[in-house]
Design a protein that fits this description.
Elements lengths: L15 H11 L4 H5 L10 H6 L7 H11 L4 H5 L3
Length: 81
């Protein structure tokens, strides 16, 4: 099967907006990093918070993250705009 959305190496291609969104969500200095983890903005103790595992996340934050990872949920698409 050939991937219509893949590059020559078979890797999934992302547009610039998706690449930027992904980078922002992985950057602890970016507000989006904290937003997708259920925080309104970066906490004062952000170094401690960022070292915690996802199991220490609140139930609400875990549910929000799960909805963003589920392509059957609208939050998945909203988080990729």
């Amino acid at each position: 099967m050939v991937c219509a959305e893949c590059d020559a190496k078979g890797l999934w291609k992302m547009d610039r907006s998706s690449e930027n969104n992904r980078a922002n969500q992985k950057n602890q200095n970016n507000p989006e990093f904290w937003k997708v983890r259920g925080y309104p903005d970066r906490p004062k103790d952000w170094k401690e918070q960022s070292s915690k595992s996802s199991s220490s996340m609140s139930k609400e934050a875990q549910d929000y993250r799960s909805r963003q990872l589920n392509s059957n949920n609208q939050a998945y698409y909203n988080s990729r705009k």
